[in-house]
Fold Putative 4-hydroxy-4-methyl-2-oxoglutarate aldolase.
Amino acid sequence: MTSINSAFERVSSDLVARARELAPSILSDVCGRRGALAGRIQPVAPQMQVCGPAFTVELRPGDNLMLHAALVLAQPGDVIVVDGKADASSALMGELMCAHAAAAGIAGVVIDGAVRDVASLRQGSFPVFAAAANPNGPTKGLGGRIGHPVSIGDVAVQPGDLVVGDGDGVMVVPRAEVARALEDGAKKVQAEQARLRDIAAGKLVYGWLEGALRDTGMLAADKTLQQLRDEFAGK
């Protein structure tokens, strides 16, 4: 099996365009609260957002040879997803490589490892998500893999999966599940908008909570939350 695999199918551009309208938190909710990368992987600037198919890279800790290869091989719109083994002893990428990625049309990078030149990256528009920062540079002499499944941020990622990130972190949706997730996500957004309208109208008691409290024995069958609210208010 070759270490560099180009034979994988990407999530379609139409689905990627629809996914840009949904936050990672929405997608996480409709995907069973699975697929969100570990919280150590965050954008270098909170306003950064990324969305696109995963272009997977596996590195040896502290070595970025295969990441340089990925910058040449990834297609416009891809999100380079790097399994850097969560190693923070040296940066795998910095300002120069991010400039290269942006010029190549890459949608962003997600690295389970460290980056550097953070001050410059924060001022730029290229989305960079990483687990740490470190001024040390990497070595460039060890092999790895491109276009194979990786584990990043405690989540398995297949090449071509959907990657969506914002200030909360990064969510990965398996390619085969994207269409359904987008449909469910749109419904979730509508439900949350309705809830916000209820809150604005002062409707602060909602049905599912009452049922959940009863199911766990926290609310007696003959009581309602409104009755408890009245008791706390001394009515």
Summary: The chain has eight helices and ten strands. The chain has two domains: 13-175, 187-232. The helical segments are 13-19, 24-30, 65-73, 95-103, 118-123, 178-200, 207-215, 225-232. The chain has a mean pLDDT of 95.
